Predict the structure.
Amino acid sequence: MYDLDTRKRALALVGQGRSPNSVSQETGVSRAAIRSWQSRLEPLGRGTPCLRCEASPRLPEDLAAYSYLLGLYLGDGCISSSRRGVDVLRIACADDWPGLIDACAEAMRIIRPDNKVFHVQSQGCQYVTVASKHWPCQFPQHGTGRKHQREISLEPWQQEIVETRPWDFVRGLIHSDGCRITNWTTRLVGGVQKRYEYPRYFLTNVSLDIVGLFTGALDLVGVAWKSTSRPRGGVNISVARRASVALMDAHVGAKY
């Protein structure tokens, strides 16, 4: 017999996408017991309905949260299936940015309010995870293999959201695969070397499709950008012009 706390802990681990075997090894609960508890769970359809699964699909109610979460997913997210038949959305967030971790978790709660958010610690980062059978409906870019090894394109309804909330999409991609840094240089002025500092934004991604979605959103909001190829593959996108950096600072800002 297992007490209630042990049962809750084991089911929580399974809800994160862990296999019954690994949960059994960690908790000491038999795999048979875990499977028995899983079979008694309420049907998955009793949670928040998926607006994409309706006879007449609708857009998410909070377009800003979805656009931001889409950017995070394309940058550092993945969807995997558990043995329960539930899909788990995982987004890697560096421990250095606790504000990013909170913002990611909040966006997940807004999109799937009846599904619990879990934080799985790894070396140097946390995986913010939510289990729901509707993630492939929300992010049809899900597929087999790494994103840069397959085509990534937005559905028309996703493109509509990005065009409506482009800054949230840009912020999600910068928070996942980008950064704001301060460059510096020196100049000789009146015989004296003076140091000048200037901020700029970068995004790096190996998927040319995702880079194209990012630069397309930058074009929508009037941000000037430049691209350079990386020796090991992929592209760096740089935003360095003063007016464009000011726009990015007003709508995106540095990670925190």
About this structure: The longest helix spans residues 63-76. The beta strands are 77-81, 87-94, 117-122, 125-131, 178-189, 192-205, 226-229, 235-239. The two ends are 45 Å apart (CA to CA).
